[in-house]
Amino acid sequence: MPGGRRGPSRQQLSRSALPSLQTLVGGNLGNGTGLRNRSSNSVGLSAPPLSALITPEPVRHSKIPELPLDSSLLFEFLLFLYLLVALFVQYINIYRTVWWYPYSHPAASTSLNFHLMDYHLAIFITVMLARRLVWTIVSEVSQSSGGSLLRYVVLIAARLSLLTMCGWVLCWTLVNLCKNHSVLNLLFLGYPFGVYVPLCCFHQEGGKSQTAPPDCDYPADHQQTELTETPFFRPRDFLFLLRENLREQFSSPPHMPIHTCPPHTHSHTPELIRAEVEELKSDFNRRIKEVLFNSLFSAYYVAFLPLCFVKSTQYYDMRWSCEHLIMVWINAFVMLMSQLLPPSYCDLLHRSAAHLGRWQKLEHGSYSNAPQHVWSESTIWPQGVLVRHSRSLYKAVGPYNVALPSDVSHARFYFLFHKPLRILNLLIWIESSVVLYQLYSLLRSERWNHTLSLGLILCCNYYVLFKLLRDRIVLGKAYSYPLSSNSLGLKSQ
């Protein structure tokens, strides 16, 4: 009404009735952080730390069931069997014949041109593909060496006999290959090892790795060895790295890192979480490096190396052979990923990512009216808090944030693992695409070697896809439960 008394507007009422974060926390935090007001000046009032007044909600984790995982020996045997099938398929694609022609033609009397095959090369490839299986057998025998002295002596003799036989066969095939082929062809035999040494042995994560505190409960085998601070390694360091990296290629990692949620009242909780994330990043990168090398190694020796020893007068379908090379690499990659990154390991990474959190970088001038804090490494920041770090403004995205705002690796770690089924969904999508494409190629195939090749490879892919879908269905139901402390199967940590 004109001349009447105006009441407070809705905007003024909301501002005066609700206390702001600046009023609750105060201007100067006790841990050295400050609160910026609208004019970017620090308020002179002292207050307790932010974590003491605004406590983040405790991170609750879903408890997943123990899914069956193939043992190391069984997995290596299945992988070796798949690679042998893929090698047989590649030899069919290269040395096939028109065997239904009359027997007057000698080359067509059999389904394959066996007289053109190099058996020494086939044996050499088989021994190279069996290296992980042989080493796994030796490792399993070494672990079960307890008992009487006679059993121990027999096991030692069996190990030496197996390794000696493999070494003798490898040397015998190399000598015969050197007699029948040129130096250029022989260089292809050891090309993967020549590439692996400079790429994997010299490339280490940082000059000096950080060791995890004892509270993180990491096994001693996962503690990285400190390297010299000089830009070049000593010969002893190089030989140590070469031996350790080669040992990793023969067997899967025997131990799994352990994640322990530290108490929220611990003064060094953010440091422990960041140290645990650094260890998990190193372990994850090592596993990915092992997956990439072994998958490329398998595809190289199975599908590419036989093509290098084909005579110039021999005709084969180049497009089909290259397609087979890609398929072998993808299938070996998925098999190794599903074994080295099991659901329990992905859940471990997901739990660490939930404690780490993430920061979203904001543009200058945005949220100018909101309270802004100076980031502190000893503070657990709740969701939605604005902090300044390295002359930039960041917003807390996760419900529990201790990550370094300017560290890109922390943001990448949270992006990859804050959803526990991301890696599993990616593997299912890759394997499903391969299976669908092979089924489509099988329907359109007109040659007998294509039909036989696709049929054999699809049998192996069905088993891998079945295990991935089984894990996805079980884990999807486990993670779909509401995250409440009173729910069955859930644990608040």
Give an account of the 3D structure.
By secondary structure, the chain is mostly helical. 55% of the residues lie in helices and 6% in strands. It has 16 helices and nine strands. The strands form three sheets. The chain has a five-stranded mixed beta sheet, with no helix packed on it. A hairpin with a 2-residue loop joins strand 7 and strand 8. Helix 4 (72-95) packs antiparallel against helix 16 and helix 5 (119-129) runs antiparallel to helix 11. The two termini are 58 Å apart. The model is unreliable at 8-49, 202-236, 250-254, 264-268 and 485-493 (pLDDT under 50).
Short descriptors:
two-stranded parallel ribbon, 9 strands, 493 residues, 5-stranded mixed β-sheet, mainly alpha, 55% helix
Give the secondary structure arrangement, pairings included:
Layout (H helix, E strand, L loop, with lengths): L9 H8 L3 H5 L2 E2 L5 E2 L9 E2 L2 H4 L6 E3 L9 H24 L23 H11 L1 H13 L5 H32 L2 H5 L3 H11 L33 H16 L18 H40 L9 H23 L2 H14 L2 E4 L9 E3 L11 E4 L2 E5 L11 H10 L4 H23 L3 H32 L10 E3 L1
Parallel strand pairs: 1-3, 6-7
Antiparallel strand pairs: 2-6, 4-9, 5-8, 7-8
Helix pairs in contact: 4-6, 4-11, 4-12, 4-16, 5-7, 5-11, 6-7, 11-12, 11-13, 12-15, 13-14, 15-16
